[in-house]
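During the first year of the project, the team set up a workflow for recording each protein of interest as an amino acid sequence followed immediately by a discrete structure-token representation. This format lets reviewers and collaborators read both layers of information side by side without switching files. As required by the reporting guidelines, we include two representative entries from the current panel. The first entry is reproduced here exactly as it appears in our internal archive.
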Amino acid sequence: MEKLFYNDYLRNLSEKFLRRLDEISGVYGFEYGIEFELAICEILRAFLPDKYGVSRGFVVTKEGEMAGDDIIIYDQQRFPTLRNNSKLDFAKKEQIPVEAVFAYFEIKHTLVLNNEDSRSSINYAVEQVKKVKELCNRREKVGIYQIDPHLPEIPNSIKCNDLPNYRNPIFTGIISRYVADTDSKNRIADVDQIYQLSFNRDIDHSNDNPELIILGKSNYLATGYYKKDNKEEGIETLFHIRDKIQFYGIYKSENLAYGILLAYLMNAIDFIRLGKMPWTSMINQLALGKKTTPNKT
């Protein structure tokens, strides 16, 4: 049997994730979706390096447009928020500038696969993600060969088909603890049944769909695209590649989905290089009409 990387690192991550969920469940009880959302915030905060902030709330453009409502991963070293609460208290929702955002996750305690009228449905969660991506995609692009957001891109003709052609895409996903077919009260425990239902679930595909959908602790969907129009040859990718024919790879991995989530997240944010905030424009906006002549001494 092939020896797994780093002494089965992903399996260990998944086991720790599940144990922590059980521990937090003993405190919150997870009677409501908000409690599961707070638990995911706490786990991500413990897992991620300090550079990455974890917050509940909304992404916001410089024009004031907002989207989201769930969990945002952002650069808290370069883009601090004015939180009055502890970084471990996630009850308060923040507004995070789109320029600061690495990732966004919709959180569903129970994800419903076949009831589009439910706010717990997979289609509703996908639509929420698409709204966030649409706003983040407006931010100024960091070129694929740009070594610093304040400097011009280095000319280069090398092409990379399986990654975005810029360095600051947003990584997005949906995270659920349980899965149901049509009613969130009737959860499905069988991994194979979830797997089969996933094949039959026709998710509307677009450039702004989530990259990863976690269907409980053992099932997940991961993005990819077809290399040819006949849809016979496909390749999975870390991010959605725009203007390609998209698909989702469908997987079952017993008790490993949360470890795979963490690996996808770290892989994505390791690629991302965020751009710059328009600090100069903000200063000029406030100073407009208030300029004075410097004193001469």
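The second entry, processed by the same pipeline in the following quarter, appears below.
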Amino acid sequence: MLAVGTASFGGTNEFFRGLGSAGVDDARRIVDMALEQGANLFDSADVYSGGVAEEYLGRAIAGRRDRVLISTKATFPFGSGPNERGSSRHHLIRQVEGSLKRLGTDYIDLFQLHGFDAFTPVEETLNTLGDLVRAGKIRYAGCSNFSGWHLMKSLAVAEKYNLPRYVAHQAYYSLVGRDYEWELMPLGLDQRVSAVVWSPLGWGRLTGKIRRGSPLPETTRWRNKATSAGGPPIDDEYLYRVVDALDEVARETGKTVPQVALNWLLTRPTVATVIIGARTEEQLRDNFGALGWRLDPAHIAKLDLASARPAAYPYWHQRGVSVINPPPV
């Protein structure tokens, strides 16, 4: 399943302009195309262009709220005051109310914490989410960018006090970013927490436009220093090794590089949906070409080998005794 991200809606500052600057009419066409392809989940966040992305999404879905699912996020700073960030009761209630207003709806299907707040007790955060669920303002709770212990602690507190349990973890995962597999994937399998994948094309590196010995294309986000600095660090030689394998598989399957990279993700354990974003309708249409077919085992093995990285401790040690601690499958 593919979902559509809205970080490209608005483009009100330098960072988000690097991702795109879709206006309301563009946003409406993107929603139209997604629904035509059978995709009905649209992901946003309060901080995307300072709330403009949520506003544009709300206007794009006006009159058809019953046909879509909305996920959005809060926790990151939304202002300069000490109470305008984090997962405190004050901030979460305020941000949910703001998101509802900007989205033009009275409920959010999936509300996610955008990051872990180490200064607010987990009990306070989950109690607040419970109140928002009972009030009908959110239907399900999730998290994003948590480490394994953040997520496991939250799940344990939820079970202990019968509070909302995170059903989804929005996490970075791609063929050039497989750290998710070390701990978060086994945790997701064990605790039945699905992955909602963000930046599945490695922060724009797996679009088929970046290759060994070639100059950067004019339209890439890597021309924007503010945007490129916000992405995950990747060694160039490693990137080119993965892109070379993607090129081979793309030629053999008759698919594009992004379609192969997305299809690989859709085969992975715990992955429930992959969020795609596009600057143009052509890119969005190409991304939807990742659906309706499956890579064969030989192609998956080639991509797995090219993208393999040495694991950090204790994961490399655990892999040495896989007979008692097998990797996720």
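For the second entry, the following points were noted during internal review. Strands lie at 2-5, 41-43, 69-74, 108-113, 138-144, 168-172, 194-198, 271-276. Residues 2-319 form a domain with the TIM Barrel fold (CATH 3.20.20.100). Both points are flagged for discussion at the upcoming steering committee meeting.
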